[in-house]
Every structure is written in structure tokens, then in C-alpha cells.
């Protein structure tokens, strides 16, 4: 069982509402806000959620700054991204062995505008009332993963993704 630490939601909200787009920063390789990148191609990037409420939680985003989950994409672009999301979810299912994999797109025009998808593995065996949206709440605290544990997780997901054709 991995330890959890309380999540400072107020500080997080202040940061995302006052900072430049963190996904554009990540794509530009800005060293002030490092992330563990699992995979990237010319159109999209996959990286570990920096504030994981569940083990194996990653995010998938287009490299270009798009905001509307469907409206800012042609159907062809959208489906190409979904093929990657499918593979990330499968890599997660294989590597983490969760009960289910949740896939969501959230975000807001008031912060976190750059559209992204959450690939969130639900651990096996959680009681029903701790599943679904309750499993995703920051009020649960975030997992206390060391740098080495994050690197190992990113490497494991990268390896499975490569097996699925995204190398
Ligand atoms: Zn952006």
C-alpha cells in the first residue's frame, strides 16, 4: 500500500490559474515544471499525472494548444488521438492490473484549458462506495511516489505501450 499525502488544493488552484499552460510548457521542455514523459509523437504526448490519486495515473494531450474536447479537432484528428488513448489504457491495464481503467476529459476555461485525457486505473478490491468519482477526489490525498518509483512506473508503461505499437 502506497502512502498518501494531503493535497493542497488551494495552492494548486492558485498555481494553475496564474501560470502559463503547463502542457504547452511541458511540450516546450520547460525545465521549471518537469514531468515524466511516457511517450510522444508529432501530435501528442503521454505523461504521468504529477498529482496521482491512483497508481498508474497518466494524462494524454495533443501537443498543440487545443481546448474544446471535440470542437477543436477534426474527426480524423480526434480519432487518431483516441487510438493512442486506447493504447495507453491497454498498457495501463496490462502493467498495473487494475479492476477497471477510467478515461475522462475534464479541464476548465478558468484553468487547465489545454485539453487532456485522464487514464486512471481503479485498483482492484476497493469497496463500491470508494470507486468511480470518489476514487478520483484530491481530498483522498495524492500518492507519495518517490522519483525512482515514478521513473519505474513511466518505464513500465512505456514498455507496454511500445509492445502495442507506440514506440
Ligand atoms: Zn497549452
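^ C-alpha cells above, recovered residues below v
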Amino acid at each position: 500500500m502506497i502512502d498518501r499525502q494531503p493535497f493542497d488544493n488551494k495552492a494548486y488552484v492558485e498555481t494553475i490559474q496564474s501560470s502559463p499552460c503547463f502542457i504547452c510548457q511541458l511540450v516546450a521542455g520547460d525545465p521549471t515544471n518537469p514531468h515524466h514523459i511516457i511517450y510522444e509523437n508529432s501530435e501528442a504526448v503521454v505523461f504521468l499525472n504529477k498529482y496521482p490519486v491512483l497508481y498508474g495515473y497518466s494524462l494524454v494531450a495533443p501537443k498543440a494548444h487545443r481546448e474544446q474536447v471535440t470542437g477543436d479537432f477534426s474527426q480524423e484528428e480526434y480519432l487518431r488521438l483516441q487510438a493512442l488513448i486506447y493504447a495507453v489504457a491497454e498498457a495501463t491495464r496490462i502493467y498495473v492490473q487494475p479492476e477497471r481503467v477510467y478515461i475522462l476529459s475534464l479541464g476548465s476555461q478558468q484553468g487547465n484549458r489545454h485539453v487532456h485525457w485522464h487514464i486512471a486505473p481503479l485498483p482492484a478490491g476497493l469497496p463500491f462506495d470508494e470507486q468511480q468519482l470518489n476514487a478520483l477526489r484530491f481530498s483522498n490525498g495524492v500518492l507519495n511516489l518517490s522519483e525512482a518509483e515514478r521513473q519505474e512506473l513511466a518505464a513500465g508503461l512505456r514498455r507496454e505501450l511500445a509492445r502495442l505499437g507506440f514506440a
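The chain has one domain: 25-163.
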